[in-house]
Amino acid sequence: MKTVETLNEGLKREYRVTITAKDIDARVDDEVKSIAPTVRMPGFRPGKVPPNLIRKMHGPALSADALNKAIDAGVRDLMAKEKLRPALQPAVSLADGYESGKDAEVTVALEVLPEIETPSIDGLKLERLTVPADDKAVMAKIEEFAAQMKRFEEAPKTKKASQGDQVIIDFAGSVDGVAFDGGTGEDMAVEIGSGQLIPGFEDQLVGVKAGDEKTLKVTFPDEYPVENLKGKPAEFAVTVKEVKVPAASKIDDEFAKTLGLESLDKLKELMKDQVEQELNGLTRTYMKRKLLDQLAASHDFDVPPTMVEAEFNQIWQQLEHEASHEEDPEAAKAELENDRDEYRNIAVRRVRLGLLLSEIGQAHGVQVSSQEMQRLVMQAAQQYRPEDRQRFVEYVQQDALAAAQLRAPLYEDKVVDFLFEKAEISDREVTREEIEAAIEADDDGHVHGPGCGHDHDHDAKPAKKAAAKKPAAKKDAVKEEAKEEKAEAPAKKAPAKKAEAKAEDKPAAKKAAPAKAAAEKAEPAKKAPAKKAAAKK
Q1: How far apart are CA 528 and CA 136, in angstroms?
Q2: Which of 51, 239, 309, 361 is most buried, judging by how many CB atoms fall within 10 Å of its CB?
Q3: CA-CA distance, 180 to 267, in Å (whole number)?
C-alpha cells in the first residue's frame, strides 16, 4: 500500500492511498477459501468445488467484497501510521474508472481532533447556591400538583358554560359536507380555555348549556398531521350533554388517599423528595455553568468545522421546531435568522468544551464502567416496543458510534463531578427565586455551551435550546435544565393532553385532528375532537 498526503491545512487532512491489485487478489483467494466448504455445485461433493470454479461463479461479488475489506484495512493502517485522531468518520472515495485486476486509488479526507495541552484543573473556585426544601416549598408543590388534577362537578341544567368549565359533548365533523375518518365521538370532555383543541373550537362552546345543539366552524392548522385535512375549513355538529364546573380541591388526608397514599403526611414526604431533587438540579446547573465558563475562559483552540456544523444543525433543527409552534411562526423564524451567527458561536463553544472535558477525563482516568454502560443500554431500550428491545441492544453492541453517543452524557457528568471534587467550593443559602434568577441572568449575559444541558458527544441527540434572549423560540431555561433530575409525581391522564416535545423528540405537529383516529384508525371513535398531537418518542 502506498500513501501520499495531498492536503494538510489546519485540521483538514487528505491522503491518496494506492492498494495494489496483488493485495486485492490475495484477499479474493482468502474469500474463496473461507466460502469453499459451503459451496454446492452439481458433480462435486460438498466442500470439493475447485477454487477456479468458485471464482468463476462468484467472481464479481468476491472481488467487490475483497476490495471493500482492502480499503477498510488501508484506512485503518493509515490512521495508525500517521497517528491520526479523526473528528468524525473519514470520507473515503474510490477513484473513477477502477477496473477489477488493477490497482485501486482511494482518497481519504478527514478532519483531525486538535492537539490540546493537558488542561490545568488547579485553582478552580465555585460557589454552591443551595435552597432548603422547607414546608412552604413542599406545600406549593402539592398545590401545583392538585391544580393539575382538577376535578369537575355537575352544574344546574340551566348553567351556561364559561371559561374554565368542562363541557361533555357528542360531535360529528365534516369537510365540504363530507364526514371524515375519526371525526365523530361521544361523551367527549372539553375544558374551555385549555387551549388543547384546534383554534376556535373551545371558544365557540362558551355560552352553551345542557341539551343545546350547535355547529362549530373551524379551520384545521396548516401543520395538521393528517394530510387531507391540513388547512381545510370544517364544521362540527355538536350536542351538549352536560356542563360541569371546577370543584374545589381540598388538600387533606382524603386527597392523599385518592393518590393511593395513607395520609397527607406521606404525600408531604413524597413531595419533599421531589422538591429536593429539583433544587439539587438547580444547584448543579448553576455550578456546572460556572465551571464551564472558567474552562472556556482559559482555553482557546481550533475545532473541527464538521463537528461544529453537526452541532449547529442540531441546535438549529430544535430551534426551528420550537419557532414553528409560536403564535407567529414566520416572525419567530425571522428572528432566529437574525441571530444565526450567535447560535453558530454557541456550537463552536459546545464543541470546544466537549473536547476539553474529554481530554480532562482521559488525562485523569475518568471512565464509564461496563456495568454503567449496560444500565444505560437497558434504560435506552425501554423506549422501544418489547419485541424491538433486544435488536436495539445488539445494535449498540455492534455499532461503536452508537455506543459512544449513548455513553457521552454519563461520561460528561462524571468528568464534571470529578472537577467539582477538585474545585474549592463555598456554600451560600439562597431562595429558589434567587437561584432561578442567577441562572436566567447567565442566559441573558453571554453565550453558553455544554452547561445549557447539552450532551457533548456531538452526535447523540438533538441539542437542547441554547442561550436565552430569544423569546420567540425559548422554553423556560430553569425548568429545562432541571427536568432530567426531576422525579415527576404521577399525573392523571387528560383526554386532550398538550404535546410535550422534548429535545430528543421528533418534531410534532402543533395540533392534531378532531379525533386523531383519522391517522390511527385503530383508535375508538370516541377520541377527542381537535386533540393536539402527542410528541413522538
Answers
A1: 38
A2: 361
A3: 46
**pLDDT score at 77:** 92
Q: Which residues pair with 128 in a beta bridge?
A: 427
Mean pLDDT over residues 418-447, rounded?
84
- DSSP assignment of 452-484 equals GT--TTSSSSPPPP--S--GGG---HHHHHHGG
CA nearest neighbour of 536 among 521, 522, 525, 520: 520
Please tell me the distance from the alpha carbon of residue 126 to that of residue 187, in angstroms, as a whole number: 57
**Model confidence band, residue 443 (pLDDT cutoffs 50, 70, 90):** low
Distance from the Cα of residue 140 to its chain's centroid: 30
Looking at the predicted structure, is the pLDDT value of residue 254 above 80?
yes
Q: Are 87 and 113 in contact (CB under 8 A)?
A: yes
Q: How many CB atoms lie within 10 A of CB 516?
A: 21
Could you give the CA distance from residue 381 to residue 379 in angstroms, rounded to a whole number? Answer: 5
Contact 212, 240 (CB under 8 A): yes
| DSSP letter for each residue of 371-382 | HHHHHHHHHHHT
pLDDT digits (tens, 9 = 90+) for 79-108: 999 999 998 889 999 988 888 878 889 999
- The contacts of residue 24 (CB under 8 Å, 6+ apart) are 63, 66, 67, 70, 104
pTM above 0.70, yes or no: no
Contact 460, 408 (CB under 8 A): yes
Residue 442 clears pLDDT 90, i.e. is over it:
no
Rounded to a whole number, what is the distance in angstroms from the first to the last CA of the chain?
47
Q: State what percent of residues in the chain have pLDDT above 90.
A: 50
Beta-carbon count within 10 A of 283 CB:
18
Which grid coordinates are listed for 522? 385503530
Helix axes 305-323, 329-338, angle to 10 degrees: 150
Question: Is 65 strand, coil or helix?
Answer: helix
Neighbours of 480 (CB within 10 A): 17
Q: Which of 434, 473, 530, 185 is nearest to 336 (CA)?
A: 473
Report the alpha-carbon distance of residue 145 to residue 14 in Å, rounded.
59
Measured distance CA(433)–CA(435) in Å, rounded? 6
In this structure, of 179-183, 290-294, 451-455, the range with the lowest mean pLDDT score is 451-455
pLDDT at 173 over 60: yes
Question: SS3 sequence, 261-310?
Answer: CCCHHHHHHHHHHHHHHHHHHHHHHHHHHHHHHHHHHHCCCCCCHHHHHH
415 burial via Cβ count (<10 Å: 0-12, 13-18, 19+): buried
Pairwise CA distance, residues 281 & 17, whole Å: 51
Residue 487: pLDDT above 60? no
| Contact assessment for residue 161 and residue 206, using Cβ atoms and an 8 Å cutoff | yes
- If one compares 98 and 355, the residue with the highest pLDDT of the two is 355
Of the pLDDT bands very low, low, confident and very high (cuts 50, 70, 90), residue 462 is very low
